[in-house]
Write a structure and sequence with these properties.
Elements (H helix, E strand, L loop, with lengths): L6 H6 L3 H12 L10 H14 L3 H13 L4 H15 L1 H19 L1
Helix pairs in contact: 3-4, 3-5, 4-6, 5-6
């Protein structure tokens, strides 16, 4: 199985401060707050990224969601639910991204 390059590493040379804030504030603080589980944060993040049509960021967060205990079926339900609020094109793109991540994890 080929490993995908870490997008944060690829951008470090261009935006080192953004990378630092991502690591320290977003993933080091926000994702670690006790008010929501990481599983819940993953569901929320995947829903928002789907609604905002952010497929590049969604890819990594689908993988993170699976690692945080969200099931493939739950991700499918999330995408279907969001389709009615964010539109079919966003949902179809999210489904394609999720399928690609699922396939990569089976290799």
């Amino acid at each position: 199985m080929a490993t995908r390059p870490d997008p944060r590493e690829a951008l470090r040379a261009v935006t080192p401060k953004l990378n630092e804030l991502t690591e320290k504030v977003l993933f080091g603080d926000v994702w670690e707050r006790p008010g929501l589980s990481k599983r819940d944060r993953s569901l929320i993040t995947c829903a928002v990224l789907t609604a905002l049509y952010r497929p590049e960021q969604l890819r990594g967060h689908v993988a993170r969601a699976l690692a945080n205990g969200v099931t493939r079926d739950e991700l499918g339900e999330l995408i279907t639910h969001v389709a009615f609020y964010a539109g079919w094109p966003s949902a179809v793109t999210a489904a394609s991204v999720a399928k690609s991540v699922f396939d990569e994890q089976q290799e």
